[in-house]
Design brief:
2 copies of one chain form a homodimer. Chain A is α+β, with helices and mostly antiparallel strands and 267 residues long. Helices cover 19% and strands 28% of the residues of chain A. In chain A, the strands form 3 sheets. In chain A, strands 1, 2, 5, 6, 7, 12 and 13 form a 7-stranded antiparallel sheet that branches. In chain A, strands 8-9-11-10 form a 4-stranded antiparallel sheet. In chain A, strands 3-4 form a two-stranded antiparallel ribbon.
Chain lengths: 267, 267
């Protein structure tokens, strides 16, 4: 696949059917986002759920009901065509993993773009914290915890976390760096004993590959964007559409130029 | 009026009709909040408006539709009785300023508690920035600007700001301190020329007393919680209820112990 020169060009390639691979590790430094599309009837509950659980679900942008176009800063893009791959649930059952959702879009659909850990992975590497480049093969292990999210209306479920094992002398630095990015998943939610999160065997993650725990490393756990992918289908809404793991929406802006953090009028 | 020893005691005094004065300057350090109550049909638009305009409208807590009880951290309180004074609008017209809203509560009402500048006024004073103690007589001047908020559904309108004139050598410190409190109104949105915000005469605020601008001081402008009190009635919803200026909801928790900033389960 042609290597894109800008987020806009990447979105054009995706919309033209010429890019269907992961966006992880692509155009590093640009804000990438998880996607969740829900019926308008569930939109208040989900927005409230995100507000109550900002670490797993940091809201970057929400579309108007029925309008597939997201507008944030200089980014204007049609959510039906500008992610490389999606997952579609109907009444809680996964029914498709298409590369375009024109056929699944509904007139009452509301799209949510949520920050993801790609937001700070580059910053961690720049700070000398050895985080593997996020290709699908290097995705972090992901665990369902015993910690409940704060429920909202019909939505509830466990907090999901990702884990990175870091050398003890780099743990504090990793906390400092990631804490600067609330539009990623922010600072870790737990450091150390996986058992405290109800993780019986850290070598058997619920998603992703088993971790290598080198001597001298400490497990560091961050809230994970998989959380809504468990919570939303469990509500058995008529439909829910999300991104496919690693296949994200890419905004024009840099992670350090968050347009949502200002009082400037939206473009 | 008896001086309350705790937020819970203050809320009890208010509910018993024994406290109807401002909460500004009372129990300093505890999180105080602006209130907005809207019909469920407007709740998604308003929550989205708050998300898109987090500086004027930092969300602390949202109630379930129809349930007047707010629960956050150790705070459990009935919004109908636990603010000293309210303002009630019907279809855009102010109809009452009661001390209790039992008669105005509806089965579809959703309550929003939003952070306010009292969150950081104590911290500013502790840092040596001379902010007058917020009694009604010392409220800051408030201006409607030419800067639009980011609209959401039916909700739109101008950003409202408060102004404090500070000595030049303390402006940076004021920015540093208030930036730490996104559950207040965060860092200033403008420093210097009021004309840049469309304020024709800084000596004639839209609300509050005219400011004294001493030589050597710089006007510093923060997003203001009056913003939704203009935006919501303009939508001509069937009803909107807010706090009365200076008469806020007081949470149990300290401003530095924000329960919404953690992944802990809600109590």
């Amino acid at each position: 696949m042609t290597s894109p020169t800008s987020p806009r060009r990447l979105r054009e390639l995706i919309a033209a059917g010429r890019w269907n691979g992961p966006t992880a590790g692509v155009l590093e430094g640009h804000q990438q986002a998880n996607l969740a599309i829900v019926p308008q009837a569930l939109a208040f509950d989900f927005l409230l759920f995100c507000n109550r659980n900002p670490k797993p679900c940091p809201v970057l942008a929400v579309t108007e009901p029925g309008d597939p176009v997201v507008r944030l800063g200089s980014t204007t893009a049609d959510l039906r065509h500008t992610l490389p791959r999606y997952r579609v649930w109907q009444r809680g059952t996964l029914v498709a993993e298409p590369t375009d959702i024109a056929d699944y879009w509904r007139s009452d659909a509301v799209g949510f773009l949520l920050g993801c850990s790609h937001t700070w992975e580059g910053a961690l590497r720049d700070a000398g914290v050895p985080v593997p480049r996020a290709a699908e093969s290097a995705a972090p292990p992901v665990y369902v915890t015993n910690r409940p999210t704060r429920p909202a209306g019909r939505l509830s479920g466990p907090l999901v976390v990702s884990m990175r094992a870091l050398p003890g002398h780099l743990v504090a630095r990793a906390v400092e760096v990631t804490a600067r990015y609330p539009t990623g998943h922010g600072a870790p939610i737990h450091i150390g004993d996986p058992g405290e999160l109800g993780i019986a065997d850290v070598h058997q993650p619920d998603f992703g590959p088993p971790p290598k725990l080198e001597p001298g490393t400490v497990p560091v756990f961050w809230a994970c964007g998989v959380t809504p992918q468990l919570v939303l289908p469990a509500a058995e809404a008529e439909y829910v559409i999300t991104h496919f793991a690693g296949h994200m929406f890419v905004f024009d802006h840099h992670v350090d130029a968050d347009p949502t953090a200002t009082c400037e009028p939206a473009n």
